[in-house]
Amino acid sequence: MSAHSQNKSIAPALPEQEILQAIRGIRFGVVEVVVHESRVTEIRQTRRVRLTASNPDMNSSDPTSGGL
């Protein structure tokens, strides 16, 4: 059996399960659920990496860290 036909035999996860998996899979970030005509069509994740104050060089030089 090919990999393609194996994927067809696996039942898709319910949207609720996918949402919970996305939430459990990140420590800091955002899980966004997109609904179209009362159906979940997309689940987006934005992950954040928290930098500690013990490494000030990284905090100040990284434009995404919020440093000046």
Give structural attributes:
alpha+beta, elongated, 68 residues
Description:
There is one protein chain. The model has no long low-confidence stretch (mean pLDDT 77). The protein has 68 residues and is α+β, with helices and mostly antiparallel strands. Strand 1 and strand 2 form a beta hairpin. 34% of the residues lie in helices and 25% in strands. It has a domain at 15-61. The radius of gyration is 19 Å and the shape is elongated.
Secondary-structure map:
Blueprint: H1 3-9, H2 15-24, E1 29-36, E2 39-47, H3 56-61
Antiparallel strand pairs: 1-2
Radius of gyration from CA coordinates: 19 Å
Cα separation of the termini: 56 Å
Q: Could you give a short account of the major beta sheet?
A: 2 strands, antiparallel
* SSE ordering: HHEEH
Please tally the helical runs, counting DSSP H or I stretches of 4 or more residues: 3
DSSP strand (E) fraction? Answer: 25-35%
Percent in helix: 25-40%
Spatial order of the strands in the main sheet? 1-2
The total strand number stands at: 2
> Which term fits the overall shape?
elongated
Can you give the mean pLDDT? 77
Low-confidence stretches: none
Backbone structural class: alpha+beta
